[in-house]
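Exercise: predict the structure of this protein bound to erythose-4-phosphate.
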Amino acid sequence: MKFFVDTADIADIKELAATGMVDGVTTNPSLIAKSGREFKDVIAEICDIVPGDVSAEVVATDFDGMVSEGKKLMAIASNVVVKLPLTWDGLKATRALSDEGGKVNVTLCFSTNQALLAAKAGATYISPFVGRLDDINIDGMELIAEIRAMYDNYDALKTEILVASIRSANHVRQSAIIGADVATLPPNVLKSLAVHPLTDKGLSAFLADAEKAGIKV
Ligand code: E4P
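Solution:
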């Protein structure tokens, strides 16, 4: 499973990219606003740091506007993926940009039928939001399992499942078990994946024994 980082924070992206675990980055208008920087400058800088796919979201809501903004975003760097909302205009724009060779991440997906439409429109990625479903007491991971089963029924559907709105290490574990293609992780969740209290306890004991025995490597 690929790991994307879900942030527009350059310091976090640099730190996590150095681990060798980061295959791409996702942003959205809320994350860009949080960075306090100019949209295109942040996307260009992220694209320089991470060679993998970097999602940048349009703010237009009509077909023409989305296509026009999508082309501007694609011009920033070759690894920009245009993020479009799952509306009829967004699906039409997905088809138009995909037909021109662009990569599209269809976002704000909350149902299996929406994921089917995005795949038929030629989306590179579909982003189902698991955390926001959990927030309203609907099991987000059930949606991922259903989309996986549905896509696996049809060889012609090439869209990758990009699990979004991840809130915990459990979401990551379940996504991998289901066979999602990508998980986009907030930096704190990615960092938490390597942490286990028994690892810390075991390491302390090994180091104490090594010191007592005077072991040197
Ligand atoms: C990523 O593509 C999404 O925009 C993001 O994961 C949404 O996460 P949130 O529901 O925590 O805002």
